[in-house]
User: Fold this.
Amino acid sequence: MDLDLEFLWTNLGEAVRGIPTTLAIIGVAMAIGIPLAFFIALARLNHIKVLSPILTLIISFLRGTPMMVQIFLVYNGMPLLLKAVTGPDFDVYSVPPILYAFLVFALNASAAYSEMWKAGLSSVGPRQLEAAQTVGLSGPQAYWHIIIPQAVNVSLPSFCSSTLTMLKNTSLVFVMTVMDITARAKVAAGLEYKYVEGYLDMFLVYLVVCSLIELAFKLIEKKMRRYQTDSAKNGKAGSGQAGKVKAAV
Amino acid sequence: MIQFRNVKKAFGDNEVLKGINMDVNKGDVIVILGPSGSGKTTFLRCLCMLDKADDGQWIENGKTLHLHNASRQEVRELRQKTGFVFQNYNLFANKTVLENLMIGLTIGHKVPQDEARSRAIKALAQVGMLEKAGAYPNSLSGGQQQRVGIARAVVLNPEVIFFDEPTSALDPELVGGVLDVMKDLARTGITMIVVTHEIAFAKEAASRVVFMDGGVVVEEGLPKDILAAPKEERTRKFLARIIPEMATEYYI
Assistant:
């Protein structure tokens, strides 16, 4: 096999230079997606009229279509929409394509994270909220101090895996001419027709970035799990659950 | 004196409370007895606004609070002067024992951190749980969790504490410890309204016993009167089921 190791090494730098773009897309998706998804989950859990079925429908669109199709649709469709809204004077091609990437990924993150929030919030149950109300906490205070931390604790592993899936999917944005890890390594490799080396560079960079993010999640998880390690030690289920089970018996 | 008037609640077609009236003096320990499904828990939950009553008033110092259409502000004020002890403890799972007590003070009642800490420590000592201050609820037994639950209500220094079957979820050997804490508490002069099946507690600590059935108060009076010589047939039947000696007395 004829691998150009020197090119593999120099091109690695090119792939690395794409990391900030990739992380920016994920960062924006998380910053918009996590809070938005929380409210989507709340609306759906509380079966809010009109809003809840609409959100369910939108989420099924987002989750039921390939990301590549969404990217093509947004990248080609949004300029038309913008033109229609802003009039002929606005140069729609001056819009940086990364904004379209932000849009696609923020929407997808909201859809994916809303399922996590939903699972997390329903695992906490209404009793913790009631207890918080009886000690004088308002609804938002109860959510902030009691319910959200417990919900996050429950859904952190799935938060992690959806985030990683999304990060891997960011490799698709090269079709929108966004210069992320994939695009940079691919373009540089294309100039010298050394695609395998280029792909190996991408492979390595994604591997490292994903592993680091996974590690970060594991650390957060460990920090947040303090109150469950107690139960693990004693071989008991979660306190609320234990109470419920006992009551039911 | 607090007066509860005409408290009503229905879940769909099921009328759970059919207009409950009750007078509570300061320092009263009122034990509410009754078969399951008689509306005892719902009554407490309506008074604490955990469930919304369909009708009813909370009258105190000449002021009337309408339970069915209280404003947000009124709900907040009401919660500032009530405490609630749940059947299943409902301690905050993500907070240590000490934090469970402090959060209501610091966030709910805007008490400064240091004062909140010293009040929380005092309340934990009162229920004998100080050594577990740093533990998370999951590592505690049911009895310990319930004692913390009581301390969490007491620390807020409420006018009245509601107890919703505080020992029903406990293993039998743990019931005594929790009841002892409640008896000590009763002696401090705090107003308590207790839903329980523990007749011994009613005998020893209650200033008044209320018997509820089918969403109404069937009869009420001093513990010695109600428990030893109930006037109403329904009360007698209920007591005979839970006090074996009484069954003998009535069925021979």
Remarks:
- Chain A touches chain B through 33 residues (CB under 8 Å).
- The longest helix of chain A spans residues 139-169.
- The CA atoms of residues 237 and 243 of chain A lie 9 Å apart.
- Residues 229-249 of chain A have pLDDT under 50 and may be disordered.
